[in-house]
Amino acid sequence: MPNSQFTPGIASGRLSDTELKENFADLHAPLEAHEALVAADRCYFCHDAPCMTACPTSIDIPLFIRQIATGTPEAAAQTIFDQNILGGMCARVCPTETLCEEVCVRETAEGKPVEIGRLQRYATDTVMESGKHPYTRADATGKKVAVVGAGPAGLSAAHRLAMKGHDVTVYDARKKAGGLNEFGIAAYKSVDSFAEREVEWLLKIGGIILETGKALGEDFTLASLQDEFDAVFLGMGLGGVNALRAEGEDKSGVADAVDFISELRQSNDLSSLAVGRNVVVIGGGMTAVDAAVQSKLLGAQNVTIAYRRDKGAMGASQYEQELATAKGVRILYNAAPKKVIGNGAVEGVEFEYTTTEGGKLKGTGETVTLEADQVFKAIGQTLSGAPEELAMDGGKIAVSEVGATSVTGIWAGGDCASGGDDLTVTAVAEGRDAAEDIHSYLMGGA
Ligand SMILES: Cc1cc2nc3c(=O)[nH]c(=O)nc-3n(C[C@H](O)[C@H](O)[C@H](O)COP(=O)(O)OP(=O)(O)OC[C@H]3O[C@@H](n4cnc5c(N)ncnc54)[C@H](O)[C@@H]3O)c2cc1C
Ligand code: SF4
After folding, report:
1. Helix H or strand E encompassing 385
2. Does residue 109 have its Cβ closer than 6 Å to ligand 2?
3. Which of 154, 292, 354, 392 would be 329's cystine partner, CB 3.0–4.6 Å?
4. Which ligand is closest to the CA of 40, given by its number?
5. What was the pLDDT predicted at 2?
6. Mean pLDDT, rounded, for 302-326
7. In 49-150, where does DSSP find H-type helix?
8. Does the beta carbon of 85 lie inside 6 Å of ligand 1?
9. Of the bound ligands, which one is closest to the alpha carbon of residue 158?
10. Which of 175, 220, 221, 236 to mutate to test the pocket of ligand 1 (most atoms within 8 A of CB)?
């Protein structure tokens, strides 16, 4: 092995193939059948279950857990898919510690929730691995709907619309469908090409034409879609990246965290992926944690996440922060980037310590410089290329509760639309709800 964790600069092959395989294995092993029964047995099947209220897709959690407990995981999967067709991915990526499991009565009483996420995975995997698709289409309505973006929002909308009997065409600018499920989610949360397999399984409903490599604003316009289709759903996510606003951010070795993660997700050979010896990740959300943890797992010696506010304000949950530190990542709170140092290539980043006074973040004047040969920016994404015809709200497409935009016949959902958290499960819920509204509009009920 030519390189190691100590090789200076940005280098590939810092770890052996065996170490890389171990590092990027499934974060949570799937439950065996008997483990699922034991886990399901812990549920109290609460009336007015708080876990269900906390789920953005309102899955009937006590019902599906009871179905697992009575030995019918296929029925449990149906309960899940009825509300959330990407229930398999959500079982892997949902921050359950801040959603259903946080409010589970066994968490509040005993500090150990029912393992809802893992049980959901057990049920959905049972059906998906059988290759069966449990839905059929309603009679054809003769209506055509365009969906822009094949991420969780677009796929969820497309499936629901196809199920109602409409003919759907999904356009995606990328060559591969899945959105951030395919290009963004940390590799250890979605192993064995699960995102790709899930798209294939979802498309089994029929009635959905997938057109990849076709971008709104380049290959077609909103007006051309309006001419050709009876309704349009936009689920284009957030393609733009915020600037660091620190001197020297154009130096080589400074990259966007999402691009790094996307390259990692598409790599067939992790030993060929180069990573710095000293990596600094700037940001405080899930993307920052994912970039930092994966840098460490690739063999970087020192990885630091620098976040400008305090621990409590960090977008990444307590669980995610603990995951990062358990993998050897250091988190530096209250440090705002001032200057990227280096002569052409990055050598370090100077930070100013911060404090919050009267709700406002202020620099203290004290600085610290972290050595770095690679810097990842994970400071949030922005919407780019939104059609001009649509009203905006806070930099996103303004929508009603059911995803209707300011223009009749156009809906939007997921990260590109106003309101909601930027989570996979929220995107799925918004795609589904918009599809229901589109259906009533097309059938004359709106
Ligand atoms: C690094 C990272 C890690 C994350 N980890 C998690 C996690 O662990 N758990 C979680 O719940 N959430 C996570 N999220 C958030 C989650 O991935 C998003 O909230 C979710 O993917 C949003 O879905 P979406 O369908 O709105 O958009 P996206 O998933 O972004 O999909 C949008 C699709 O639209 C396409 N598109 C864009 N512009 C055009 C155009 N002009 N024409 C045609 N197609 C276009 C894109 O190619 C893309 O396929 C993470 C996000 C990132 C960035
Ligand atoms: S809150 Fe916990 S115990 Fe109650 S139904 Fe939900 S998972 Fe079961």
Report:
1. none
2. no
3. 292
4. 2
5. 81
6. 95
7. 50-54, 61-69, 73-83, 87-93, 100-103, 105-110, 116-129
8. no
9. 1
10. 236
